[in-house]
Amino acid sequence: MRAVFSNVRLAGVVGVVPRNVSYFDDELANYSHDPANSRKLKQAMGYGEHRIATKGTTTSDLACFGLVKLFSEYGVNAQDIDAIFFVSQTPDYVLPATSAYIHGQFDFSKETYCVDINDGCCGYVKGLYEAAAFLQVTAAKRVLLIAGDVLSPRVSIHDRNSYPLIGDAATVTLLEKTVEASPLDIEIYYNGTGYDKLIIPAGGARSPGVETRARLETDEDGNKRSAEDLRMSGTDVFAFTQTVVPDFITSFLDRRALTPEGIDLFLLHQANAFILERIRMKLAVSKDKIPDQVIRKYGNSSSGTIPMSLACAHPAPGANVMACGFGVGLSWGAAMFKLEGLDFCAVVEY
Amino acid sequence: VLLLNIKGNIMGIANADERFLALIAGLEEILEATPGTLSGSSDFKSHPNWDSLAALSAMVYAEDIFKRFIDPSVFKASESIAELYSAVVEAG
């Protein structure tokens, strides 16, 4: 899918992370692996610390905290919001939609359109597409794109493959319709044959039986997890990030007669620091063009890492930005735009 | 970092024999085996230090040697370093 939207501006972004910091070194005892070996993993992947929400905290709790900031400090009026797009894999309920729950927490108009999008690593790009399309074809002027996950309750603490990398966060991006915006250029792709490379097997209609799904099982690498926990095929996902993603970025730019040098900032999904470094080497761009502080400081919040990276980087007005997400689905996509300047840009603690 | 530092060993590799020897040497380093203890017939995946991190390191190292990414299934299917090398060469 390819689309170019005009008149859509990223007006501001707020990232919300839990106050609680969890350190890799403190989690070593949870794993069955040799601690010395685990420390190598820590160094290679950039696993120092991550944010883990306290029990009972949901993605919508973090998002609503961000919305309070938006409405109380950044001059945004809930009544002026025409739509809420909630991109997450961790809804509050099976039903209703979490966007509807969020709608009920503030003074939004009853005309405000609410939609949930179940997506992860490429979810922010997908959310940008949905929000921009909505702005383009309706009379809407301002929409919210909420993206992120509180995934920690769905990842086994005994899974060294996945637990060290995840971090809980929600982000709120304000998108506005304006005639002054430069094009928002988006491509998104899927390969659904890889649906099981990143999966939580239990919890949906195709769940294993209730009597077995909570049982911890040990994989060949010594990680323990149940069917209710995130299961990542590490080598297959890594292969995906090292083959499909760099070629996609290069071809995306080729199609527009651009090279990586023409991009000021690559906001890549921050899966881990090693993946980012290998992609950076393949694109042959300087380290400052592909930030990795989100994975090092906060952890991987799925659809939240790109807007978190934007909030941390706070690029100057006029910067040529490429946001690129890749992962669960399997899916990958990019959004390219010239940043017009952000009205607000912050990371706050909940 | 293990994953990146071993890259230095592959500089100047020009031919198939050198690539094969470099693959053995790289796997010895990744597995922290004594140099000279692995050979083409070695079952690298049975080594006590073979784990997910070693697998990622081997994939990256092989990519740097062969100048293309080797699918994880090739590693999974190979019983020895020689088999791995042959599979990579045959895959072209």
Quick recap:
Chain A is of the alpha/beta class and 350 residues long. Chain A contains 9 helices and 17 strands.
3D structure, described in words:
Chain A has 350 residues and is an alpha/beta fold. Chain A has 9 helices and 17 strands. Chain B has 92 residues and is mostly helical. In chain B, helix 2 (16-30) runs antiparallel to helix 3 (52-66). The longest helix of chain B has 15 residues, at 16-30. Residues 1-8 of chain B have low confidence and may be disordered. The A-B interface holds A 33, 37, 40-41, 43-44, 161, 221-222, 234-236, 238-239, 242-243, 274, 277-278 and B 1-4, 49, 51-53, 55-56, 59-60, 63, 69, 71-72, 75.
What topology does this entry show?
The complex is a heterodimer of chains A (350) and B (92).
Chain A: E1 2-5, E2 8-17, E3 21-23, H1 24-27, H2 35-45, E4 49-51, H3 59-73, E5 83-87, H4 98-105, E6 113-117, H5 123-137, E7 142-149, E8 169-177, E9 184-190, E10 198-199, E11 217-218, E12 224-225, E13 231-232, H6 234-254, E14 265-268, H7 273-283, H8 293-297, H9 305-313, E15 320-327, E16 331-338, E17 344-349
Parallel strand pairs in A: 2-17, 5-6, 5-7, 14-15
Antiparallel strand pairs in A: 1-9, 2-8, 3-4, 7-8, 9-16, 10-13, 11-12, 15-16
Helix pairs in contact in A: 6-7
Chain B: H1 2-5, H2 16-30, H3 52-66, H4 72-77, H5 81-91
